[in-house]
Amino acid sequence: MANLNLLPSKVPSDGAWAAAVPSSIRTTAATAAAAATAATGAPAMGQKDFLTLFTTQLKNQDPLDPVKNEAFVAQLAQFSQLEATTNMSSTLTTFVDSMSGNQITAGAGLIGKKVSVPDGPAQLIGGQPVQGVVNLPNGAEGVKLEIFDSKGVLVQTRMSGSQTAGDLSFGWDGKDEAGNTLPDGSYRFAVTAVSQGKTTTPTVSTLATVVGISQQADKSMLLQIQGGKSIKLTDVKRIDG
After folding, report:
1. What is the number of structural domains in the chain?
2. Is residue 177 part of a domain?
3. With pLDDT > 90 as the criterion, what percentage of the chain qualifies?
4. Residue 138 belongs to what domain range?
């Protein structure tokens, strides 16, 4: 906002300025000082405050050197733009809060469903088959799948031949090398692949059941799955009924 000339040109600056202005008049400098206190927690200038300052300037401007109409229009336009931006920010904040509530509602629909969990536990429940997926971007000449129990003991090993590039899906029936049914619990899959003469250990994703959902301070959603692990909703690449 442009400063208005409230004194004749013969009035000195600095200390003489403050002495010459009647105490009943709120000067631009005084307003600036008041604005500076906003940093300490005072409310920012609103539309009513602006109009009060604006009319005070009009009343106390130098009649011999009045501010041009264009300057007034520019000041009003700047305030209108600021007001519109403030209202837009408030509207966006309300919209984001509303979307956060919708995310929780949508996420609740995933409870009971199976989602793909990178490096997640393989939960064996009631002897039901456990499914897993491993991505092989370049295919493989050979793949070895190892299954470990919760204590890290190897319970079964599987070998597969040549695989094409893409996702390799597999299932485990919950049995060990000898064909014995293993007890329910948490197991882990590990894959070793040989591709183009190099040995790699790609991440295995298991299908696990969602048992809960929560929202973090940053509004991101976390899915709690069987086995005690939590993953971000944005990390889910596959959902099964």
Report:
1. 1
2. yes
3. 26
4. 114-240
